[in-house]
Backbone:
């Protein structure tokens, strides 16, 4: 069975979204209750809704999974995952460890679970470079060790260290090509 969905997971600032962009696959847009950041648009980066709206969607089965992170609720639409699994083109999505596990349990071999790893000091520096407030940086790094432990449940782990960014990008691009181009 071929993989229809690539799920990327890993610690905050490990480079999941950067590698997702390099993957070259269409991505599933997830839901969040946080406010849009400057330049974000509803339906492009995220679908934006209230915490109660997302919890209601989960209770009614519209969301496959929800999680609370940094005081906000995040979730993944069941319909979008099912559509991606049924589409001829593979898709990708970035999820936390809990969401990734639920998608993998539900869709098993149709999902390629990719862990993205970077060392804690590199994640800290990347968060600082984003200009996030110090308390938010600390909150995001607080779960680093737990996120790293969850990487061992992935189908493969890509190290995304500063000195190896080109190698990580090359590897993820090769995955994208292998999922979209026929083997002769």
Residues:
């Amino acid at each position: 069975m071929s993989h229809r969905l690539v799920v990327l997971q890993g610690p905050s600032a490990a480079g999941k979204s950067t590698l997702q962009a390099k993957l070259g696959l269409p991505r599933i847009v997830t839901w969040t209750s946080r406010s849009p950041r400057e330049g974000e648009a509803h339906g492009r980066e995220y679908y934006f809704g209230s915490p109660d709206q997302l919890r209601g969607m989960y209770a009614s089965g519209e969301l496959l999974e929800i999680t609370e992170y940094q005081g906000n609720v995040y979730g993944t639409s069941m319909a979008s995952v099912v559509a991606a699994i049924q589409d001829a083109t593979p898709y990708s999505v970035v999820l936390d460890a809990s969401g990734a596990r639920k998608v993998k349990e539900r869709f098993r071999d149709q999902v390629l679970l990719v862990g993205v790893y970077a060392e804690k000091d590199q994640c800290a520096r990347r968060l600082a470079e984003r200009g996030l407030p110090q308390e938010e940086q600390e909150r995001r790094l607080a779960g680093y060790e737990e996120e790293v432990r969850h990487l061992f449940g992935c189908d493969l782990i890509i190290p995304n260290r500063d000195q190896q960014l080109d190698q990580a990008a090359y590897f993820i691009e090769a995955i994208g090509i292998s999922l979209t181009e026929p083997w002769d």
Notes: The first strand starts at residue 5 and ends at 9.
